[in-house]
Amino acid sequence: MPETNDQQRRIIRETLQRDAERYIDERVDRYIEVQHQGVIPNHHFADASTECLYLYRDGHFLSVMMVSQAVAEGVFRFVAERNDVSFEEGQQKPAQSKILVEKEIISQECKTCFDRIWKSFRNDLHHMNPKVAQIPVKRLAKQDIRDLSSIENEIFAWRGHDGKIVPVNPKYWDIQSDGAVPVFLRFP
Fold first, then answer.
1. Domains of the chain: which residue ranges?
2. Is 129 left (phi over 0), alpha (psi -120 to 50) or beta?
3. What is the rounded CA–CA span in Å between residue 46 and residue 71?
4. What count of other Cβ atoms lies within 10 Å of the Cβ of residue 64?
5. CA distance linking residue 16 with residue 45, whole number of Å
6. Do the Cβ atoms of 152 and 109 come closer than 8 Å?
7. Residues 166, 159 contacting (CB under 8 angstroms)
8. Do residues 52 and 71 touch, judged by C-beta distance below 8 A?
């Protein structure tokens, strides 16, 4: 006899509660270890960046790699646009990030983070090549989310002053005429 909708709901609810209790400490540890920035500008990639953090917290490592790569590419393009930098057609990402370092737009550490994310099996993951089965996703996801966090911590650095957010790099924040800063909050 098929289960009723109420029975299905009850079974699913109980299963999810057991899983939540069983893995809560692991999830908390992963959330804390990222050392993400709790406040970032409210740009088009803020939701995806935050979702990437939650994917890592919840142990969805393959998805973390894919989303961190997409967010890193979006942030990189955003930084280049805000600094009026264009690149040669077909130029590889590491060569592009080197230009940003040479122009003192990003640090060498930030370049290293971008490059490591881009080299993290991007094509294999996005095209679901057979090689995906051999990728050490848990280890690489941890590295990718930490690299993304380092990138955001540098690009979107801010300080507090008299209860206000003061961006270190104002060109990356859409500061309003009244001085208000639209932000995206990422607190548990």
1. 34-185
2. beta
3. 9
4. 27
5. 29
6. no
7. yes
8. yes
User: Model-level pTM?
Assistant: 0.88
Q: Check residue 2 and give its pLDDT.
A: 62
Rounded to 10 degrees, what is the CA torsion of 139, 123, 37, 112?
A: 80
Q: pLDDT means per 10 residues in the chain (188 residues)?
A: 80 89 88 87 94 94 95 97 95 94 98 95 88 92 96 95 90 91 85
Fold of 34-185: Four Helix Bundle (Hemerythrin (Met), subunit A) (1.20.120)
- What crossing angle do the helices spanning 108-118 and 93-102 adopt, rounded to 10°? 170
**H or E segment and range at residue 167:** strand 164-167
Q: Which amino acid is at 139?
A: R
